[in-house]
From TrEMBL:
The keyword Lyase does not apply. Signal peptide: none annotated. Residues 71-298 form the LUD domain. This is LutB/LldF family L-lactate oxidation iron-sulfur protein. Pfam families: Fer4_8 (PF13183), LUD_dom (PF02589), LutB_C (PF11870). Residues 398-470 form the Lactate utilization protein B C-terminal domain. Keywords: 4Fe-4S, Electron transport, Iron, Iron-sulfur, Metal-binding, Repeat, Transport. The keyword rRNA-binding does not apply. SUPFAM superfamilies: 4Fe-4S ferredoxins, NagB/RpiA/CoA transferase-like. It comes from Lipingzhangella rawalii. Residues 315-384 form the 4Fe-4S ferredoxin-type domain.
Amino acid sequence: MSRTFLGLPPFGAASQTATTNTQLRHNLRHASHTIRDRRAEVVTERADWPQLRAAGAAIKDRTLRHLDHYLEQLERAVTAAGGTVHWARDADEANAIVTRLVHETGEDSVVKVKSMATQEIELNQALDQAGITAYETDLAELIVQLGDDLPSHLLVPAIHRNRSEIREIFASQMHRWGRGAPSDLTDDPHDLAEAARQHLRDRFLKAKVAVSGANFAVADTGTMVVLESEGNGRMCLTLPQTLISVVGIEKVVPSWQDLEVMLQLLPRSATGERMNPYTSTWTGVHAGDGPQEFHLVLLDNGRSSVLADEVGRQALRCIRCSACLNICPVYERTGGHAYGSVYPGPIGAILTPQLGLVDREVARELPYASTLCGACYEVCPVAIDIPEVLVHLRQRSANGSGHRLERASMAVANWMLADSTRFSWIQRAASAGRHLAPRHLPGSWGRAWTDTRNLPEIPAASFRSWWSSRTSSTSGTQRDDRHD
């Protein structure tokens, strides 16, 4: 089974290693520039793009403000359509629900549609421990799985691999998971795609259980929506007898009218297409048509905590288009693995720490994995102000950490500044002893700092004292003038 992100080093150390990998940087530069150029072309076709973007942000904000209402509406609609809704507070609970549901079917394998939510909770690993094999059917996810690798991009998980590397993975590993690659396989994209197609065809025809996520969930009808480009999702969503969808609670949209806006924003921002090739929608179950058993697992896993943060909650607007990754100069040079999370790039730098998906050391460094250039905000289709959230998280990180001496110094400063009389007394004392002030700070770090910098002179009187004496003098003159 594919490895997890657990145990990867913090961004600082990981990025130093990544930036020395010239092949990785070449792969990333080529792929990200290709996608961003296509996106820019189709976005400029829309004269109303700013208004469309603002509408998308407004829809997400309105939904998040009333999320409890829309989730309950979604549950009622799914249930009325013949589906079953399960609520999962965290990853362990979600994994337990899915594992139980698969065991109840008597099957020991599932086919999967590409899903960030299932990667977030590490569902494949949980199923493996329960004796259930999860087969990825998205081409990029298949490459990652066969290569015992980690995804490095929201949309193109194998973006860090080139054609030659993919050919070697298929040739050496594909037979271990099912039908093997042809002996004469080349690195031509058509040949690689055909090898994957033949490998997956048996899985689609034999699968009894499928697991998916959803790009959107329409509250008023209970409809799930998946967008994809290969057709594998359509096969997984229609052929098996049982369908289990793990969906983050933030994926809800109120109505089909709101969905219409999102379906214009997402393809253009994600792949540079006016419309994605496959948009699959399903509402509950229908006799003789598609899966006869549908389970919706609504996943919290930290989202409620993010919702409580007035600044950070805008990260929940994200529709997983990856436009921010493709434009980010940091991601282009480090790749996704350096972020140590299933959510890489700028959105990962704000979403991962808030969801608590990594340990504290990794989470503390992620908000600093940015130049704050603002390019991510400019391309975000739902106007998430990622730089604002990054600064917010940096402040929160600084408030909760720091050296003991630094924390003690801040405590003393707080004590001094909290009372005006106390502060004035300290200022007068500092002015009186200004000739005793050292010219160099102690310690090696202090000497290194002050050897090349002059400490500012302490004035004979503080500004407050000077202003007070000046004001008194002026007031006395005015009183004398009035008396005359």
